[in-house]
Amino acid sequence: MKKLHKTVGVLLAVLMILSLSVVSFAAETGKTLTIKNSVSGYTYSAYQVFSGTLSTDKKT
User: In the 8-state DSSP scheme, what is residue 33?
Assistant: First the structure.
């Protein structure tokens, strides 16, 4: 039983380590963004949080 607990513990530890190494990828879609009053020396990044499709009336 002790061996089973140790094995499960090691597997959970490896699983946690692997879950921390997930990398997010941004799709290149050719969109542009203009920032007014930007500060020199700062780096700005934008990420898509939600996605969806337009309805047939193009309003929602």
Answer: -
> What's the confidence (pLDDT) of residue 27?
59
Q: Per-residue pLDDT for 47 more than 90?
A: no
pTM of this structure: 0.35
Sign of the alpha-carbon torsion through 45, 47, 24, 29: negative
- Cα gap 60→30, rounded to integer Å: 22
Residue-wise burial string across 17-35, b where 16 or more C-beta atoms lie within 10 A, e elsewhere: eeeeeeeeeeeeeeeeeee
pLDDT at 12: 93
Question: Of the candidates 33, 37, 59, which has an alpha carbon nearest to the alpha carbon of residue 48?
Answer: 33
